[in-house]
């Protein structure tokens, strides 16, 4: 992939400035309320997951499940990109048994920002992350080893993920040692990269039809997402 610099933002590329701190979440689906207590019982605030990221993730999960789009509905993955990359901002939660399976590091795209992901794009060759809801797909062995495809399901926000080869894979720059040497994780070409140690066990758990949510607290995404704004 060749990265070409560009001066003008396209319709599927957006730069965010001021985060939207408060926004109501209307979720009529009963499962959202049923599972919401897990935020406290799993001590997710202490572990660094924002409440808004969790609530939005549950809403999207419930919608996708109600439509029969999840063939692996027992687990949900949240990448909280409102947090810096030197924090463990990836959360894999067993919805069925209400257990936190993994809480670890995850990288964002090279052109999305250094410590924080603040610029997002759906554009090929942008080297930026795309926020929103994905459904995990199949696995393969590629140049980064064992990897998992991600199907972006939010039109104009992340629906070009397959074309962009946005996948979960492992990377040397996702580690405690890299953070100690550089202050934050390294960055990918837009993929949510994880450590080599946890890559395979995480993928093996969430592959083939589970809900994967990349959360951004930026207004552009929160206003554009049809899933988050569903009645």
What structural keywords apply?
single chain; 231 residues; L,D-transpeptidase catalytic domain-like; seven-stranded mixed sheet; two-stranded antiparallel sheet; 6 helices
Describe the 3D structure:
The chain has helices at residues 30-36, 38-41, 51-66, 176-182, 196-206, 219-224, and strands spanning 13-15, 75-80, 90-94, 99-104, 119-121, 132-142, 145-152, 167-168, 211-215. It has 231 residues and is of the alpha+beta class. The strands form two sheets. The chain has a seven-stranded mixed sheet. Strands 1-5 form a two-stranded antiparallel sheet. The termini are far apart.
Protein structure class: alpha+beta
CATH architecture annotation: Beta Barrel
CATH overall fold name: L,D-transpeptidase catalytic domain-like
Q: What's the shape?
A: globular
Number of domains: 1
Percent strand = 15-25%
Query: Level of helix content?
Result: 10-25%
Rounded to the nearest angstrom, the radius of gyration is: 16 Å
Record the strand order, biggest sheet. 4-3-2-9-6-7-8
The number of helices is: 6
Brief summary:
With 231 residues, the chain is an alpha+beta fold. The chain contains 6 helices and 9 strands, in the order βαααβββββββααβα.
